[in-house]
Q: What sequence folds into this?
């Protein structure tokens, strides 16, 4: 009964917003509703397989979130006509010096080599001092070990006395941030010229290799969603005619096929990073990643209600920020290990993963009041999408659009986990964005005045810091 009510409610919000915004599938409120609707439909098709029983509390959480997303979107778009505004000025090819590209590629290769050496050193130390499940051999098992240590065996990882190579420590944020900008450049130039240059694509390929040897697959999905939203927005600005509803539907079908192929590839490469395909069927695999987070959240709410579990405001929701502050201030009370994302089981005893949607840490931290965390999220996505899709911001390369395309993946993944706040307050991501910003301004837009601004701000901060010390 409840699951049918949830699906019906989400379908109504989805249809309303699609109609209101002329079937613009990429508008944030539509992405939010469609992704949750997909999750709900997968849950509905597996009610018997996993003994799923939803509760009304989950219904009201989703109702509140979708209603708020819809109302704020209506308010922000109240003076906007349907469809994207046409721009008479066409996009221009983004030119980047070949010498800069070659230098970036060389630094990427050195960074990858340095990390591979680091993997071997970590594995050697682990085999000598720990080896809980036997010694580790083979490159794919080394990748799996590193991924397990950094995600689940953090205490053991901290005991491993292997320093990160200086080349990787310096090179990784620089090359990662710069390689991300190449996605924008490749998409922009393809829209303008219908051509793809190997030298521009090579940094992206090397970035994928770097991601792979770090034991992750989801960052590669982020690269794909970046390319999709960039193409969607840039191609519309380069089109002389208003994009029709039929073209929107065709685009969605093509994107759907791409995502299916991508999903199959991600399953195929699991063995390359030391992971095993442990589920009994494709249906179970799809449910575990798309439907289970909603089931896990519902089961948590049914058992614990809206009870706050932390003394610190947003301790789990803003975990990345608190961990960073705690690390540098040596304040252990700010370190929120161990993770609250424990592995969960369905009502009939099947393991269904350790993710609980974006709502879980919000409710865990502040109970029902934790749902206010959705407001900044909505405001960012709706205001930014409206800005980049209705204004001419492409004189050179737009950092605002670049950043939005990077965070677009977190909007999609809200049904999976608290990706938005995890990303925004992640010190590593902030470093990437700083290097990407500098690369865009200095190497692409040729805006050298940005260095004067950075120097001035640095001297001001240093002066304030010295006064506090004295």
A:
């Amino acid at each position: 009964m409840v699951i049918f009510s949830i699906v019906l409610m989400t379908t109504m919000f989805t249809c309303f917003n699609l109609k209101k915004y002329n079937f613009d599938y990429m508008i944030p409120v539509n992405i939010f509703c469609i992704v949750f609707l997909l999750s709900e439909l997968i849950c509905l098709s597996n009610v018997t397989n996993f003994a799923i029983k939803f509760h009304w509390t989950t219904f009201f959480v989703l109702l509140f979130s979708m209603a708020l997303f819809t109302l704020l979107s209506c308010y922000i778009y109240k003076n906007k006509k349907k469809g994207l505004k046409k721009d008479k000025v066409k996009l221009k090819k983004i030119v980047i010096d070949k010498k800069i590209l070659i230098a970036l590629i060389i630094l990427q290769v050195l960074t990858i080599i340095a990390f591979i050496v680091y993997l071997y050193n970590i594995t050697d130390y682990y085999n000598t001092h720990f080896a809980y499940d036997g010694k580790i051999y083979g490159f794919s098992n080394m990748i799996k070990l590193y991924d397990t240590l950094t995600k689940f065996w953090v205490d053991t990882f901290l005991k491993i006395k292997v320093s990160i190579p200086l080349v990787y420590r310096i090179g990784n944020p620089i090359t990662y941030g710069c390689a991300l900008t190449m996605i924008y450049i490749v998409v922009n130039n393809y829209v303008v010229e219908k051509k793809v240059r190997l030298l521009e694509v090579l940094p992206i390929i090397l970035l994928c290799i770097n991601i792979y040897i770090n034991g992750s697959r989801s960052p590669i999905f982020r690269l794909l969603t970046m390319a999709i939203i960039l193409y969607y927005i840039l191609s519309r600005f380069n089109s002389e005619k208003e994009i029709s509803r039929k073209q929107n539907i065709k685009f969605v079908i093509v994107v759907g096929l791409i995502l299916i192929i991508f999903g199959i590839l991600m399953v195929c490469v699991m063995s390359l990073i030391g992971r095993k395909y442990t589920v009994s069927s494709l249906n179970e695999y799809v449910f575990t990643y798309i439907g289970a987070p909603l089931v896990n959240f519902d089961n948590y709410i049914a058992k614990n209600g809206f009870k706050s579990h932390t003394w610190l405001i947003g301790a789990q929701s803003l975990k990345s920020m608190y961990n960073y502050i705690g690390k540098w201030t040596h304040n252990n009370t700010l370190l929120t290990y161990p993770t609250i994302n424990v592995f969960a089981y369905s009502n009939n005893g099947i393991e269904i993963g350790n993710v609980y949607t974006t709502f879980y840490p919000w409710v865990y931290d502040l109970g029902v009041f934790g749902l206010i965390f959705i407001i900044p999220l909505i405001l960012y996505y709706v205001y930014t999408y409206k800005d980049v899709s209705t204004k001419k911001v492409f004189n050179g390369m737009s950092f605002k659009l670049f950043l939005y395309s990077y965070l677009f993946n977190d909007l999609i993944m809200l049904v999976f986990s608290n990706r938005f706040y995890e990303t925004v307050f992640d010190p590593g991501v902030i470093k990437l964005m700083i290097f990407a910003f500098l690369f865009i301004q200095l190497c692409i837009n040729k805006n050298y005045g940005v260095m004067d601004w950075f120097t001035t701000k640095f001297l001001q901060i240093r002066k304030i810091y010295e006064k506090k010390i004295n």
The chain has 18 helices and no strands. Residues 82-87 have pLDDT under 50 and may be disordered.
